[in-house]
């Protein structure tokens, strides 16, 4: 098949909390008239991201096996792409990687598997960067694996989206842009707030140029041993019932105040004792928010949360969250 006949694939990467799921939702709700299949991969054993994606007619494939796509789960990606081929044709595939993923092996998938490469074309690797926190991670580049992962994601990008620019000033944006270009001089750098980016700048751009990639890194297809920072872990907590809102917010405030520097990401879908709707929990370092989502419609009210960070205490987080459980109050609705 010629490149124009193949299904284009966009790989969306970026460190924890950069805004990848927000961008996925922006893409899915835009008026582009395309059928898009979304493949999501989480770092953790309790699936959360699928619940954070807006309700659409697109197909969502989720892999949550505690491993990122750059490790053994890459075989699952190949299986999903083969499954897609056997179904009705889609116009585009969007792969949202784990925040811990190295995009290099993900990109390799479209060249090392003959069936995949025959029917899919890698259009671009798009890396989201958190303008508020990326400087801290880059400063720690030589100190721990987290900085290396952030640098790897930036270095391999065809497009870099400097997101959350509403949280920094113009001087910070200029300095960060120069820093990003120091890591990747060829990728176009876009800026956005709440991942509201011009989609024509990241989709259908044909930016992944294999000849250029090999010129920059001739050994990019070589198998490389990949390690996550051993101190970074994912702690998942799930239980039936609602949370006492006041107790939960107080506990979260104390947690991020004390451990925010090492708490890279927190996310969840929770039931609160004073409201009939689900609430989405999103947080990065010392920032978190709770936003109402869809209503519970007869199904069990289950609260799920995932904490990703360095040196996390599973027992402490589990007991702390369970200690916020509501005692018998059920909101109407």
Automatic annotation (TrEMBL):
The keyword Secreted does not apply. Residues 232-325 form the CobW C-terminal domain. SUPFAM superfamilies: Hypothetical protein YjiA, C-terminal domain, P-loop containing nucleoside triphosphate hydrolases. It catalyses: GTP + H2O = GDP + phosphate + H(+). Signal peptide: none annotated. The keyword Zinc-finger does not apply. GO terms for cellular component: cytoplasm. Coiled coil: none annotated. Keywords: Chaperone, Hydrolase, Nucleotide-binding. InterPro entries: CobW-likC_sf (IPR036627), CobW-like_C (IPR011629), CobW/HypB/UreG_nucleotide-bd (IPR003495), P-loop_NTPase (IPR027417), Zinc-reg_GTPase_activator (IPR051316). One of its GO terms (molecular function) is hydrolase activity. It comes from the Bacteria. Belongs to the SIMIBI class G3E GTPase family. ZNG1 subfamily. This is Cobalamin biosynthesis protein. It comes from Streptomyces cacaoi.
């Amino acid at each position: 098949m010629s490149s124009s006949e193949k299904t284009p694939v966009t790989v969306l990467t970026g460190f924890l909390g950069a805004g990848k799921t927000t961008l996925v939702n922006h893409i899915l709700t835009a008026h582009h008239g395309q059928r898009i299949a979304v493949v999501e991969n989480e770092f953790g054993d309790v699936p959360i991201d699928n619940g954070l994606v807006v309700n659409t007619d697109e197909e969502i494939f989720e892999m949550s096996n505690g491993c990122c796509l750059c490790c053994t789960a890459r075989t699952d990606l190949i299986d999903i792409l083969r499954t897609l081929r056997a179904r009705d044709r889609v116009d585009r595939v969007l792969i949202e990687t784990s925040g811990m993923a190295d995009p290099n092996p993900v990109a390799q998938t479209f060249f090392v598997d003959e069936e995949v490469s025959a029917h899919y074309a890698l259009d671009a690797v798009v890396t989201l960067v958190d303008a508020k926190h990326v400087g801290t991670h880059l400063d720690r580049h030589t100190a721990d694996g987290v900085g290396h992962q952030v640098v790897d994601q930036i270095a391999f990008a065809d497009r870099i989206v400097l997101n959350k620019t509403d949280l920094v000033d113009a001087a910070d944006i200029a300095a960060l842009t120069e820093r990003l270009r120091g890591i990747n001089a060829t990728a176009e750098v876009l800026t956005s707030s709440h991942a509201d980016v011009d989609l024509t700048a990241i989709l259908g751009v044909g930016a992944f140029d294999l000849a250029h990639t090999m010129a920059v890194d001739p050994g990019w297809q070589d198998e490389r041993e990949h390690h996550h920072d051993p101190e970074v872990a994912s702690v998942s907590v799930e239980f039936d019932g609602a949370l006492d809102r006041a107790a939960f917010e107080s506990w979260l405030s104390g947690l991020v105040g004390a451990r925010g520097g090492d708490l890279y990401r927190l996310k969840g879908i929770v039931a609160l004792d004073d409201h009939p709707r689900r609430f989405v929990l999103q947080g990065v370092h010392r920032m978190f928010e709770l936003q109402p989502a869809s209503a519970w419609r007869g199904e069990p009210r289950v609260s799920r949360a995932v904490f990703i960070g360095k040196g996390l205490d599973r027992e402490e987080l589990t007991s702390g969250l369970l200690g916020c459980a509501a005692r018998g109050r059920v909101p109407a609705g």
